[in-house]
Amino acid sequence: GVHIGEGEVLVLLATFFWSIEVIVAKKALGGIPVQFATTARMAAGAVILLGYLGVTGRLADLAHFDGQQWR
Predict the structure, then answer these.
(1) Concatenated DSSP letters for 4-71?
(2) Per-residue pLDDT tens for 4-30?
(3) What is the dihedral of CA 34, 36, 42, 44, to 10 degrees?
(4) What is the DSSP letter of 3?
C-alpha cells in the first residue's frame, strides 16, 4: 500500500504554505521594493524553519554540519 511519512507531509505543507504566501505577498507587498520584500520573505521562512527544528528538538543538529554540508 501507500505509506505517507513525515517527509511527504512536509512537502505537502510546504507546497500549501508557499501557495498561500505567494497570494498574500502579491497583495500585501505590492508597494514595497522587490529586494526588501524578498529578503523579508526569506528571513521569515528561515525563522519558521528554525522554529520547527526547535519544536521538534532538532535545532542542535545544525551544529553538527561541516562546511561541505552548509554549501
Answers:
(1) --HHHHHHHHHHHHHHHHHHHHHHHSTTS-HHHHHHHHHHHHHHHHHHHHHHTT-GGGGGG--HHHH-
(2) 999 999 999 999 998 998 888 888 878
(3) -130
(4) -
